């Protein structure tokens, strides 16, 4: 779950196609999901870390917290999510919190299965399989 949260956060920061509203919404979703984890797994140190981020965002970047808004037009360039890395969930800090509870944190350091990075092998789709057999459309695939 923490890998997924970090991947969503990374996407919100690094995806150039996302609008400002989408970036802010994704950051709000990541902190909401992150806040659930220590309550379900009873990890007080992780809860403390996430609460520190929430409090800092409450003071400096309320737009990075729920509730989600449709528009974030009031943001100045200095309040854009990519200008506030100190308010993001830190992978190393998460690992330290998990280690403090005796939980192996090495999976956080490995490549995330959610990131879609270049290290993942290409998986052929059924569309490509149909095209390889000379079928050009879904109708051709259904007929074959």
Please describe what this structure looks like.
The chain is mainly alpha-helical and 144 residues long. It has 7 helices and no strands. The chain has helices spanning 2-14, 20-41, 44-60, 91-100, 106-109, 126-132, 138-143. Residues 118-122 have low confidence and may be disordered.
Helix residue percentage: 40-55%
> What is the total tally of β strands?
0
Q: Number of helical runs? A: 7
Low-confidence regions: 118-122
State the secondary-structure class. Answer: mainly alpha
Radius of gyration: 20 Å
Strand % is under 5%
Order of helices and strands: HHHHHHH
Describe the largest sheet: none
How many domains? The number is 1
Rough outline: globular
End-to-end Cα distance, whole Å, is 41 Å
> What does the average pLDDT come to?
85
Organism: Pararge aegeria (speckled wood butterfly)
InterPro entries: EFR3_Homologs
GO cellular component, one term: plasma membrane
Protein name: EFR3 cmp44E-like protein
């Amino acid at each position: 779950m923490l890998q997924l949260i970090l991947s969503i956060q990374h996407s919100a920061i690094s995806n150039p196609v996302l609008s400002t509203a989408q970036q802010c919404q994704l950051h709000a979703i990541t902190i909401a999901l992150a806040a659930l984890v220590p309550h379900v797994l009873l990890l007080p140190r992780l809860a403390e870390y996430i609460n520190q981020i929430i409090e800092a965002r409450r003071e400096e970047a309320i737009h990075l917290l729920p509730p989600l808004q449709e528009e974030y037009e009031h943001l100045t360039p200095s309040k854009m999510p990519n200008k506030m890395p100190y308010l993001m969930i830190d992978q190393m800090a998460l690992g330290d919190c998990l280690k403090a509870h005796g939980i192996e944190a090495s999976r956080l350091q490995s490549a995330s299965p959610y990131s879609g990075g270049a290290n993942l092998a290409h998986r052929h789709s059924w569309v490509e399989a149909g095209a390889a057999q000379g079928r050009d459309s879904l109708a051709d695939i259904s007929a074959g």
